[in-house]
Amino acid sequence: MEKLLQEAQSLLQIRLTPRQVALLKRYEEELLEWNTRMNLTAIRDVAGIRIKHFLDSFTCSLAWRDRPPESLIDIGTGAGFPGIPLKILYPTMRLTLVDSIGKKVEFCRHIVETLGLENVEVIQARAEELGQNRVYREHFEWAVARAVAQMNVLAEYLLPLVRVGGAALAQKGESAPAEAHASENAIRLLGGRLRQLVPVTLPGVAEERFLIIIDKIAATPQNYPRRVGVPARNPLR
Ligand code: SAM
């Protein structure tokens, strides 16, 4: 964990406490163990987990600096990324983890329970369903996603869940500038405005990465998100 501690500090000015390190270690053990039984994540080695999962999740903090979200929804969280490492980093943040696949949701529930994380809700659902559910629609300060869909599709998943004045954050690879440009119209339609692309470099990872940050400046029209599967089949242009 020493390398992760150093990188978190030098890259992100994050100083992890011994308790946070212990929680990450436990999470890592559970990931490695569950991965032997089911296909949870493609990254299965310890160094990969620490840099490509934990540190990469922590890079979201570049969007927040000293003001992390009060409430965050992580759409398509898979085995809990970036939501669970961020909850370890910001213990008072209210977190909602969403995935459509039962075994991933089961793993996330297991981790939340094993690590004793409070104020975390884990939901098996499609983003399109939650976006039309009165309890979740325009409810969150921030919505985040990593490796879930193209930006124009993702905007339709994320922006309906964010309250006006909040923001959406997409963790993306080198296609981010082109994707952001191609999604400008979709973002506007959904009540968003592109704020910023933040370049992120991970140690030992050649591909340049970006955070795409989108402000929610107006209510999302009621007809979005469209029915389950429609945003991906027929993306907004
Ligand atoms: N965010 C995690 C990460 O970066 O490690 C998982 C990424 S995985 C490639 C994409 C995940 O998004 C899958 O677990 C999939 O089930 C979920 N997903 C895709 N579309 C979704 C949707 N419309 N609603 C909810 N989950 C979705």
Descriptive terms for the model:
Rossmann fold; binds S-adenosylmethionine; seven-stranded mixed beta sheet; 40% helix; 237 residues; alpha/beta
Describe the structure.
The protein is an alpha/beta fold and 237 residues long. The chain has a single domain (63-233), classed as Vaccinia Virus protein VP39 (Rossmann fold, 3-Layer(aba) Sandwich). It contains ten helices and seven strands. The chain has helices at residues 2-12, 18-37, 46-58, 83-89, 102-115, 127-131, 151-158, 176-182, 184-189, 230-233; strands spanning 71-75, 94-99, 120-124, 140-146, 162-172, 192-200, 209-216. A seven-stranded mixed β-sheet has the order 3-2-1-4-5-7-6, sandwiched between helices. The model has no long low-confidence stretch (mean pLDDT 96). The structure holds S-adenosylmethionine.
Concise synopsis of the structure shown:
Helix 1 runs parallel beside helix 3 (46-58). 40% of the residues lie in helices and 22% in strands.
**For the record, what is the CATH homologous superfamily label?**
Vaccinia Virus protein VP39
Radius of gyration: 17 Å
Look at the helices and sheets and give the structural class.
alpha/beta
Looking at the structure, the CATH topology is Rossmann fold
User: What small ligands are held by the chains?
Assistant: S-adenosylmethionine
The number of helical elements comes to 10
Q: How is the largest sheet built, in terms of strand order?
A: 3-2-1-4-5-7-6
The gross shape turns out to be globular
The count of DSSP E runs of length 2 or more, i.e. the number of strands, is 7
- Looking at the overall shape, the CATH architecture is 3-Layer(aba) Sandwich
Low-confidence stretches: none
CATH class: Alpha Beta
Task: Provide mean pLDDT, rounded.
Answer: 96
- Quote the beta fraction: 15-25%
Topology pattern, helix = H, strand = E? HHHEHEHEHEHEHHEEH
The level of helicity is 40-55%
Total domain count: 1
Taking the alpha carbons of the first and last residues, their distance comes to: 44 Å
Q: Sheet bearing the most strands, described? A: 7 strands, mixed
